[in-house]
């Protein structure tokens, strides 16, 4: 099973484009993708679902910033153990999939992660979700809400959520608006 099929179940893989330059860039991309295809299937599924869920939160406010993409790539490298070139491809695929099909696959992908991850991995994912959403120094209410939904889908309790969320308190948009109210009209 290819990484494409893991990220895009039921969707046909598009044919590879011919090389556009003599520098072999298309060939290099093919080599990276082939290396991803060689991953052990369970590990590939874990990485694909991890990246997808990160993208789910980044896309919750319908804007994925460059800072959020960079954070996702860093986390896929660190947590997924992938080299940078592979992490970039996985994150781009997850980002595109969330933009195109997010709502239909969100629960299914998160449920698979839930079934294949232990409690510590779920808590680590929760921390990663807040790290991605705070990468642009503000966690929108939509992102925060989506993380709450994901925590529920991962069968984490409210205390787990609040403990992780408290580490990102300074970035929560909902708290910022309460701490700095609008000046009185007049």
List the helices and strands and how they pair.
Blueprint: H1 3-7, H2 25-37, H3 41-58, H4 66-80, H5 84-116, H6 119-133, H7 141-153, H8 158-166, H9 173-179
Helix pairs in contact: 3-4, 3-5, 3-6, 3-7, 4-5, 4-6, 6-7, 6-8
Describe this structure in words.
The chain is mainly α. The chain has a single domain (3-10, 28-179), classed as TerB-like. It has helices at residues 3-7, 25-37, 41-58, 66-80, 84-116, 119-133, 141-153, 158-166, 173-179. Helix 3 (41-58) crosses helix 5 (84-116) and helix 3 packs parallel to helix 6 (119-133). It starts with a helix and ends in a 7-residue tail after the last helix.
Brief synopsis:
The chain has 186 residues and is mostly helical.
Number of domains: 1
Q: Under the CATH scheme, which class?
A: Mainly Alpha
Rg value: 18 Å
CATH superfamily: TerB-like
N-C termini distance: 65 Å
The global form is globular
CATH names the topology as: TerB-like
Class by helix and strand content?
Answer: mainly alpha
Low-confidence stretches: 15-23, 179-186
* Helix percent band: 55-70%
**Describe the biggest sheet?**
none
Indicate the proportion of strand residues: under 5%
**Secondary-structure element string:** HHHHHHHHH
